[in-house]
Amino acid sequence: MEVILLQDVESLGHEGDVVRVADGHARNYLIPRKIAVPATKDAKQQLERRRGAIAKREEQKAEAAHKVAERLHEHPLVVMAKAGEGGKLHGSVTAQQIVEALGAQTGVSLDRRRIGLLEPIREVGDYLVSAEVYKGVTAQLTIRVVSQAGAEAEAEEPEEEAEDEAADGEADGEADEV
User: Fold this and answer.
1) pLDDT tens by residue, 125-139
2) Of 27, 114, 147, 173, which is most buried, counting CB atoms within 10 Å of its CB?
3) Which CATH superfamily includes the segment(s) 72-172?
C-alpha cells in the first residue's frame, strides 16, 4: 500500500514522502496514529499544495541543526570511565555513553545510532567522533575520556585544602585568645 508520510519516520522516510509499506503496517500502525495517510489521488494533490510549507519546515530544521552542530563542535564532551594503570579502560566507551554524556552536558538528545564511532574507545584521552545531527548535517564531537579515579582525586584535593585552611584558621584563632 502506498502512503504519504505526515511526519518523519526513522525507517521509512521524511514528511511528504510517498512510500510503499505493507498493508497491515499502514492500517494498524501508521494511519491510526496519524503518521501517514493513504496515497489517494486527492491526497497527492493536497500534498503538492503543501510542498512549499514542508520545504520551509525542512529548511528551518536544517538551520537549527547547523547551529546545534556548531555548538557541539566548540565544546568538548567529557566522558568518565573506570581506568586502570597506564590509562587503559576497564571495558570501553560506547556510543550510548557518549549520547548520555551529550544529553547531560549540552541538553542535545541524539539516537546512539547517529554517533559515528568506528571502533570502541578503550583508552583515556581525546578523540574526534562524528555525529549526524539531522539528515545531511554532521557535527565533529571532541570526546575527552577521563579516568573516574583521577577525576575523583582532583575533586577531593580542593576540599582537603579548604579543610586544612579552615583548621589553620581555627588554630590561629585559639592562639589569639590565650
Assistant:
1) 888 888 888 877 888
2) 147
3) Ribosomal protein L9, C-terminal domain (3.10.430.100)
